Amino acid sequence: MSKRLILGIVGAVVVLIGWWSCHHRPAAAGSGQSGSTVGARGGGRRGSAGGGGPVPVVAGKVEQKDMPIYLDGLGTVQAFNTVTVHTRVDGQLQQVLFSEGQDVKTGDLLAIVDPRPYQAALDQAIAKKSQDEAQLANAKVTLARNTDLMNKKVIAQSDFDTSKYSVDQFQSAVQADQAAIESARTNLDYTQIKSPIDGRTGVRLVDVGNIVHASDQTGMVVITQMHPISVVFTLPEQNLSEILGEGGAHGGLKVLALDRGNTNTLDEGTLAVVDNEIDPTTGTVKLKATFSNDQLKLWPGKFVNARLILTTRKDATVIPASVVQRGPQGTYAYVIKPDKTVEMRPIKVGQTEANLALVDDGLHPGEQVVVDGQYKLQPGAHVELTTPQPAHATQARPPTQRKWTKS
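Below the sequence we write its predicted structure tokens.
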């Protein structure tokens, strides 16, 4: 390669480098200046956040209220009485006089079994009694005559004894006939099948025209007493002493039946009985409560949450449930001190109900606590008290309009 060619190439490279430097140096300088500005602004924001400014929080007060003490358990609704209606005589089912799902009263006629064979048996028993009564009357006349003759010593003692025993025999026969009449009349009454309790009928289990027997296992219909109704539930054995201490063994404690979501109260009742033994396999004790069930919200077999009101604690220390925080050491709350700094204080919570927490220890009525904004706090942080915004405020605010500028 010639020396002139090499010098030409070097010169061309120098020209390209010079051209590139002239066109790109101002842009690089602008980028650096812009980066400095952004860095300065970002640094300013970080300095403001890290400078220990007050943290906005929502505050609430520790209050005193009467607070019910609950014991919650899973319960099952049970009918107060359940009866499977059977026929007590054999025969053809002539009539069914109830509708499925009908409310019936004690003594209401439900069905009729063919009564003719039992009417005939009753008539036969009545006729047999009449026959024996006639024979008894004749025996009594004979005994009276023989008694007079015996006094005159006209007849032998054996003849007198025979007439006397005949009277006794026919008297016993008449008594047996009366018993047969009562039995036949009872069987005739059984052909009319009546409701033994107040309740609601279920699905009909036999149709008209079928032959029914007293030995049938399925029965004709199941009647369930809907009100009052019972709820059987269990509680841990550790609660037994508290229940007995409040007189639960004698009943009378208030019990609420709630739906499975624990949101709606289905009915209010009273504790009826505490079982006389603890289940050793589960360590629970069984309880039964009685409910009027006037609105029929409790249905046999339904699962409910049973809430036993053990007692009502007067002037209890309560706080909003959102105040309670949980950490590795247990529950705590942020307490706002007079100098607007916060203290992380351990508390003991008895129970939480209806967005209120019952505090057994750690707080005193009148103290201010942080209701919202705890995630920003550290012990000793300064706070600024704010009012909570309604949930619809964010939705009602119009969207922010951003202006775009062309660079």
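The chain is about 30% helix and 35% strand.
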